[in-house]
Amino acid sequence: YGLHLVLLLNIPHIQCSSNGYYDAFFLDPYYRFNDVMYRWISLDNWTYSRTFKTPFDVRKWQKVNLVFEGVDTVAQILINNITVGRTDNMFSRYSFDITSIIKEVNFVEVRFLSAISYAAEQSRCHTAYSIPPACPPPVQKGECHANFIRKEQCSFSWDWGPSFPTQGIWKDVRIEAYNHYHLIYFTLTPFFVKSAQQWSLEIESIFDVVSSKPVSGLVTVSIPKLQTQQTYSVKLQPGEGSIVLLVNINENATVETWWPNGHGKQTGYNMTTVFIMEAGYKIEKFSKAYFRTVELVQEPISGSPGLSFYFRINGRPIFIKGSNWIPADSFQDRVTYDTLRLLLKSAADANMNALRVWGGGVYEQDEFYDICDELGIMIWQDFMFACALYPTDQNYLESIRAEVTHQIRRLKSHPSIILWSGNNENEAAIASNWFSVPYADREVYVRDYVMLYVKNIREIVLAEDKSRPFIASSPTNGLESVKEGWLSQNPYDTHYGDTHFYDYSNDCWDWTLYPKTRFASEYGFQSWPSFSTLEKVSSAEDWSYTSNFSLHRQHHENGNDEMIQQIERHFKLPQSTNPIKKFKDMIYLTQVMQAQCVKTETEFYRFSQSEIIKGEGHTMGALYWQLNDIWQAPSWASLGGLRSPTNHHFLSSLKDAVGLEKTQLSASVSQQDSIYIFDLQTTAIAPFVSLDVGSIKGRFNENGFLMTKKRKLVVFYPWEPTTVEELEKSLSLTSLMDVV
């Protein structure tokens, strides 16, 4: 309608500051020791550039902006050799006015500064006091001062992931040209008015108004399936103008609410919003409206000190069951819609109803939340701060305020998001003095903590989104932490809030060790990924539990030894004289061990839901660590299949079991429409039967099960085209009786 033009830009030409132009094809960065071999890339400065023609007459437009949806991270932006702006936050959206600079033919440059160098310089400049931790533990082979740059924190390394401090343009870049006004954000927030027993929808639209005078017009909102249509007279003020509309849903319409997976449908309603302003310019916005309420209930419990901590969705208490989500790849451009959908669909099919987007990664892409809306997966959304203290100088706070404001406006229309959480484990870091801060200096860090998470992030959340609860940290004591000045003495107190719990030294089969908490938001055990996964990123000399590769890949201190110690409690260690067979058996046993440990702990939290013992209990959430992997290495990740219809309890450790016999396992494969049926047969009881089809992507409806009958059917859902022949050729069948 002559109002708005968009030109998408790809900026492919890459220049390295010290080594000239590169047009190289690197090996897989995950292959063997490449995380260290390619470290030089992140230590250098890189420039992205291209020439482009403007496909419109710039004289016809009042304003032309260069918009970056995501820049990773520190960069100088130039058009036609003129600096138009700078970036320093991976999580913010940047818009630069290039109205007076753009020509018919243009040269754009994005000059990046090494994230490692920048973080080190920012730390050096912070002379008043140190902001720990300076560096990750040596076992992580990572980079220092991640807390001084607003970037994916785990890109500097973590105890399950490599150090790949990327630099580049990680989201869309475009040129926007417009007259009069331009819509920047459009958000929907549902509310249920109890007194009237009626739903309403708050619509907030934020504009860049180019006109020097107010712009008047009409807005019409239509939701046909709810027999709702309303028209409003509005006026936009110059600058950043906003319109807030309250749409009352027709009281004669039956509103179907959005429910978590397993509790009902995920109904959404098509909605059209039309803006017709002065001069006849028109914007038509198509969106989906969802209706659901969320409450975080913290109230006294009969027979127990402390407070409850659970979520009510549409007035119904919901047990939160699921996992924690980390970035699906060190290189975000490789995370496709299909990758996200397969992982999230697998979680939903495994009867999960929630995931926690962990605060050391990234705010996920729009498609992630769209899929969660569709599948009924509730999202506990951390802000991106984790396991560290952070500076609170003015520039840093301004950057964070822009980041938080942008992310809330981008995400708050999603019904799947049920909670904003300020950070991961930073309340605990101060309370437990992880960084050995002298007591005399503690107050400065407490002040910084309150300044960042309460006086800035919380204030923005309260202003931008009144429909969801906010907690300052995880774990936290919730309202008790607030009462104690936002930092409790013991954030792991089982009588309040949520807890994170890890214990690698004691017997994981002993459920009496686990905290009878109100909400378990992190817990888990390590295992190695399958041999078929490791094989792709290693060579034959690496295939040993004590090889340099195996030690290099383990980023958790003493992790490999801890797994052996846990295995030894209940299983016999592999003794094969064939080194590859011994390695495969060891990998298999770590997975069996992990499955049993997580199963035991999860079941403990599930049955703690309905009881109070010695003042503890009413557990209303279990989110194990972690759903997915970022690379091929030992980690806490596990995802294997659909809910098993039966449960088994072993009366002794399997190493002490009497009567188990050597078994012969076999399988035949047949196709049934788009799925494949594996017909398994065994000559004796087979514990922990594992099916692996190598590089063929897909999932089994069951895996790692106890086979007590001679025959069992298992379904395989492929994620890519395959055949019966390929599956039979790739199939590896293992049970505990195969470990020698």
Automatic annotation (TrEMBL):
Residues 27-171 form the Beta-mannosidase-like galactose-binding domain. GO terms for cellular component: lysosome. Residues 311-469 form the Glycoside hydrolase family 2 catalytic domain. Its EC number is 3.2.1.25. The keyword Hydrolase applies. It is found in: Lysosome. GO terms for molecular function: beta-mannosidase activity. InterPro entries: Beta-gal/glucu_dom_sf, Beta-mannosidase-like_N2, Beta-mannosidase_GH2, Beta-mannosidase_Ig, Galactose-bd-like_sf, GH, Glyco_hydro_2_cat, Ig-like_fold. It is an enzyme of class 3 (hydrolase). It catalyses: Hydrolysis of terminal, non-reducing beta-D-mannose residues in beta-D-mannosides. Keywords: Disulfide bond, Glycoprotein, Glycosidase, Hydrolase, Lysosome, Signal. GO terms for biological process: carbohydrate metabolic process; glycoprotein catabolic process. Residues 660-738 form the Beta-mannosidase Ig-fold domain. It comes from the Eukaryota. Exoglycosidase that cleaves the single beta-linked mannose residue from the non-reducing end of all N-linked glycoprotein oligosaccharides. Monomer. Belongs to the glycosyl hydrolase 2 family. This is Beta-mannosidase. It comes from Apteryx owenii. The lineage of its organism: Eukaryota, Metazoa, Chordata, Craniata, Vertebrata.
